[in-house]
Structure formats: C-alpha cells, structure tokens
Amino acid sequence: MKQVISYSLYGKDLRFLVGAIKNAELAQRFFPGFTVRYYYGRSVPRWVLSTLLVFPHVELIKVEDTENSIARSWRFMACLDTDVDVVLSRDVDARLSIREAEAHQEFLESDFNFHIIR
User: Fold this and answer.
1) What is the reported pTM?
2) Average pLDDT for consecutive 10-residue bins of the chain (118 residues)?
3) I want to staple 10 with a disulfide (CB 3.0 to 4.6 A). Which of 41, 48, 56, 77 is the partner?
4) Whole-angstrom Cα distance, residue 103 to residue 31?
C-alpha cells in the first residue's frame, strides 16, 4: 500500500522552506513507510530541493503553473495518482506529530473514506 504525505511548496519564505525539510525529517519518526511528496514551484531554492533529496522517502514533483493562491492546492494532485492508496494532505508550515500519526492509524482501521483533523 503506497501512502503519501503531500505538500505544496513554493516561494522563498523560510517558514515554509525550513518547514518542508523539518517535516521530511519528522515523517521518518511518526510515519515510517510513507512517501513525503512535494509539488514544488520554480521559486523554491535549489538548496532546499537538494536537502529534501537527502531523504530516501521524499519525492519531488515540479509544477510549472503560476505560483499564486491556487498553488496551495497542488498537494491535492496526489489524490489523482492511481499508484497511491492513501493521501495525507498537509500544510508545509504545520509540523507532523504523534497525535496525527495515532489519528491516522485510527482512520485506517475505520470504515470511513475521508478523515479531517482540525
């Protein structure tokens, strides 16, 4: 079963760039076996991309679209990937946690098709 944590990443704001790297690291601890996928724009600095590629569980998918408010929805493209069984769509500046990992496991054991945490 392929499980993906999906993010949109664009711009040069360190809050988001460092957040992407931190979440790649946290995913190893809280979501072992998951792929962390970043749909990224042209503006993302090369140092961020090369740092993310250090992690073996990270996938980078370049998006050529305009980086505007719609870019936030790039992360939902993972839902269209027929090779992916489970998608966790996340904000790149929100840190992964044990609470979320436990909630995800509870969801997988349920009969529901969608799960939203606020």
Assistant:
1) 0.94
2) 96 97 98 97 98 98 95 97 95 95 92 84
3) 41
4) 12
